[in-house]
Amino acid sequence: MKADVVVIGGGIAGRMVATLLAKKGLTVILVTRGLGATALSSGSFDILGFIDGRLVRDPLEALNRVATNSPEHVYALLGRGREACRIMCKSLGLFKDMIARYLKIEGTFDKNMILPTVIGTLKPCAYAQETMKSGDVNSFNGEHLLIITLKNLVFHEGSELFERILVSGLTPGKVERISHVSIKASGPSLTCSPLTLAKALDKEKAANRFANEISKILASIPGVTRIAIPPVLGVDNVHVVYEILRENVSLPVFELLSSVPSVPGIRLCRALERMSRGAGVKIMTGWEAMKAHVEGNVVRELSVRHELSGSIERIAGEDFVIAYGHILGGLQVLDDSVYEPLLGMTLGSITIFTEPFKTLSFALKIGIKVDDDMRVLIGGEPIGNLYACGAALGGVDPAREGIGMGLALSTAYKVFTSLTS
Amino acid sequence: MYNDLIKEVDPCIRCGNCFMICPVVDLLPPSLKALNLLPLNLSRYIDFIKLSPDLPYYCTQCGECVLYCPLSIMTPRVFLLLREFSKGQALPSKIRDAILNTGNIYGMPNEMRVDWVTYAGLSGKVPVGVKADVAYFLGCMTSFRARLQKVAKACAILLNKVGESWTILGPEEHCCGLPLLFAGYVDAFKEIANRNVGALEHLGIEEVVFTCAGCYRVFKYEYERRGVKPPFKVLHVIEYIADLMKEGKLRLRRGKSKLNITWHDPCELSRYCGLVDEPRFILKALTDNLVEMSDSREWSKCCGGGGLLRAVHTELSSSMAKRRVEQALEVHADIIATACPSCILTLEEGAKGIIKVKDIVELVAEAF
User: Fold this and answer.
1) Is A123 among the domain residues?
2) Of A7, A110, A66, A134, whose CA–CA distance to A407 is shortest?
3) Confidence label for B322 from pLDDT (cuts 50, 70 and 90)
4) Residue B87 in this model has a pLDDT that exceeds 90
5) Range of the structural domain that residue A81 is part of
6) Is residue B188 within 8 Å of B180, Cβ to Cβ?
7) Contact at 8 Å (CB) between B367 and B238?
8) pLDDT tens by residue, A391-412
9) What residues of chain B lie within 8 A of the CB of A307, using their CB?
């Protein structure tokens, strides 16, 4: 097998770089084991949520500051100050357009939305799926919030609990009153998983029925101004489902952000799959990248193994991109150094965070170091044709900084520009 | 064995993806559902197997969970290991006895494996047990089930049409052994692997063609994994046809097919063997209206016919088939094409005549 570029990893970073390259006319093979961490995400898009535990209101301004003042931070790779902001905006804009056919995302660069989750926490993010946008707490003003939970839904059924947490999570004045109604989801089986219900709602008939049920509830509770629903509003057909709901219920309706397992995460992954396949990327699903074969200073081939059959193939390529994410990709710490499993060697010292980017976990602060062209560095020397992007990069703690999607998209775009310049 | 199990499930991070997408779990009553949160319940599960040995048969071995697992835990393998705990119980041992005593899963005399030739009106046109380049390995279901004998007939017509030097094994063909693996009998599996490979070697076969997805997967990967390496090329008929078309040796007519055809990816072919492009290449030659179901390619949904689920929990299997058929109806398909005997029988039952289910070889044979 042969391709111009071989991308390792089918998360958001891998799909982004693969799609961009394929649209440029290059042949691209994307190797992925299946759904990774992207499917576990809430399905919203954060650029920068927290600095040192403090909430960021304007992510673009904060990015400007971080990229200028903290050269060790991964965002400094995008360029200094305004240049970093330009790359971030460009990458998110491109992504939004490319995925629009399959999934609509909304938001702005310069103001974080604050979105409530099913467990009652609030998450800052710049962009979110259209179904989540009305949950932005910033736009709340003395609301009467109606929370609808689904009795027979496995995973999101702890209704009282999450009502209580939700109350405690919201700033006073934003929400005046909360009502809660628990209905039986008209899913295909007695107790159904969120994904089964979401798939059932994909059909217009079921979506209409669901919308009608909600309208009936609304008629019995006067004064409701906003409605929160568990994250189950469709998988492949979410735009239509949401339209139906909005037409029937003339109030702002929103999905709460999901914990795991996450329908919005899987929704995003399916949209990514269709986006990259639509652009002509050859996708090898169910294959694990095993070993990069290096000659001199360049990677010649990649050995991949089919997980269920155990068969092994070699893929030759001009360039290779690591986008396998963080711990799930197999990065480890060995002798105080980052061990990279494809090359089978340590890459050099671990990135140590400087203030104000303290981090919780030792395992989370390791990552790959790259040069200005995003090429992987071994002990300070770059490998000629091996690039890295996304959460595999060092200098960031994606979960704690609320940075995952922005990091993935912007660094993927940067790899794309390096590869095509 | 318990340690093997622990090793398999140990990396689990309890995200719940497998539980959420499993087509079997989704149809289970709540009590059984909770039990299927495996890593949380492993020891309890094993205790329960003693009471209810068909418990680990709530799995079709479809492998979809492996794709959804962030850590790629081989849950199907976990279920196979669990099935070893119910070895010796009624159902699994019945399957083993049938296969070892008669050579097929139905416990029928193995000589009857050639009877389909007469039924199909192909007497004298199907070589049995002769030296040849290509062998057509039918598998138990295709040999014995009336519906599937039509597939065998289509394949025979295809092989004769392209003038191949070919043969079937007839009475010398034995069950590929996959049901033994599914029922937890690894040793018996090895024995049967040797028998089949020996019989094919004896006839100097260079290529073996399969219409059964399960037999194909077993010959291609499982024999070698268990120390029996086949010295011949293993091809599923969709690979065989695609190759012929690419070499220009087979031209298909774009027959009556104004019909919408959808391809149901059998798990054994798509997820287990990665054969997703070949069938679409063939179908595009047959029709302009190839439609895709919402879950397709490697992400295909199981029909419910795999992993002995159908043998043990028949109703559940039918409900799964119904769901898959619904997906086909959603995209307005007139024909579900597939290439697995188990999928054909299960889907036909789920379809209840609303939609046609056809093997791709049948469609190809119609288009000469």
Assistant:
1) no
2) A66
3) very high
4) no
5) 2-103+268-420
6) yes
7) no
8) 998 778 777 788 889 999 999 9
9) 66, 72, 74
Give the minimum alpha-carbon distance from A45 to chain B in angstroms, rounded to a whole number.
Answer: 20
A115: in domain: no
Does residue A186 surpass a pLDDT of 80? no
CA distance A137 to A237: 26
Domain boundary among A256, A282, A301: A256
Examine the domain organization and report whether A174 and A283 are in the same domain. Answer: no
SS3 A30: strand
CA–CA distances in Å: residue A334 to residues A366, A378, A393, B116, B310: 11, 14, 17, 62, 48
Task: Provide, as residue numbers in chain B, all residues whose Cβ is less than 8 Å from the Cβ of A288.
Answer: 72
ipTM (interface predicted TM): 0.91
Closest-approach residue (CA) in chain A for B76: A308
Q: How many CB pairs under 8 A join A and B?
A: 92
Do the chains contact at B63 and A308, CB–CB below 8 Å?
yes
Best mutation site among A1, A119, A193, A308 for testing chain B: the one with the most B CBs within 10 Å? A308
Q: Quote the tokens at residue B281.
A: 């290449």
Q: Is the pLDDT of residue A345 over 90?
A: no
From A256, A288, A305, the end of a domain falls on: A256
Residue B191 domain boundaries: 90-245
Average pLDDT over residues B8-20: 89
Question: Domain count of chain A?
Answer: 2
Is-contact A197 A189, C-beta < 8 A? no
Which of A203, A236, A307 lies nearest to residue B66, judging by beta carbons? Answer: A307
Residues of A in contact with B217 (CB under 8 A): 309
Looking at B69, B86, B103, the residue that finishes a domain is B86
> Do residues A167 and A63 both lie within one domain?
no
Q: Are residues A236 and A316 in the same domain?
A: no
Query: Which CATH number characterizes residue B289's domain?
Result: 3.40.50
Instruction: Count Cα neighbours of A34 within 13 Å in the Cβ-side half-sphere.
Output: 24
The mean pLDDT value of chain B amounts to: 92
Mean pLDDT along residues B1-30: 88
**A274 shares its domain with A365:** yes
Give me the pLDDT at residue A361, please: 58
Q: Read off φ and ψ for residue A301, nearest 5 degrees.
A: -140, 160
CATH of the domain at A297: 3.50.50.60
Q: State pLDDT tens for residues A227-284.
A: 999 899 999 999 999 999 999 999 999 999 988 889 999 999 999 999 999 999 999 9
Between A337 and A145, residue with greater pLDDT: A145
Tell me: do B312 and B335 sit in the same domain: yes
